[in-house]
Write a structure and sequence with these properties.
The chain is an alpha+beta fold. The termini are far apart. Strands 1-2-3-4 form a four-stranded antiparallel sheet, sandwiched between helices. The chain has three helices and four strands. About 6% of the residues have low confidence.
Length: 124
């Protein structure tokens, strides 16, 4: 019996390291993919075609940014923003649905205000 416990514990620990999160709290794999896409874009080039599920935004003072997020209700929960100075910010939080509408709630006068509004999401 003790031998089975010694085998089961490492197996359970290994399984707990698998990345996909079914609870909609974000994923490092999603974050990696989002950063890869955002790093290929330019938030100052308003004429470029954005990939599906990536959207334009502007801070209150007019700084453009590109934002994306994965729907927490479908196992997502990873958000990423590319600001015009090249800064990429990612965060694991509740993204309530697909498309631009749930992402529009993250606003602010400046880049720092936008980031602060994201960090204010309850529990994250």
């Amino acid at each position: 019996m003790i031998g089975k416990v010694y085998i089961a514990i490492p197996f359970v620990l290994l399984l707990s390291c698998i990345d996909p999160d079914p609870k909609g709290e974000g994923s490092y794999k999603e974050e990696e993919q989002i950063k890869k896409v955002l790093s290929s874009l330019d938030a100052d080039d308003l004429h470029q075609k954005l990939p599906d599920d990536y959207y334009w935004g502007k801070t209150g003072n007019g700084e453009p940014y590109i934002i994306t997020g994965t729907d927490s209700h479908k196992g997502g929960g990873t958000l990423g923003i590319l600001f015009s100075d090249g800064t990429i910010f990612t965060h694991f939080c509740h993204v309530c649905g697909p498309g631009l509408t749930p992402l529009e709630g993250f606003r602010g006068e400046t880049k720092d205000d936008v980031i602060a509004s994201i960090k204010e999401v309850v529990g994250h």
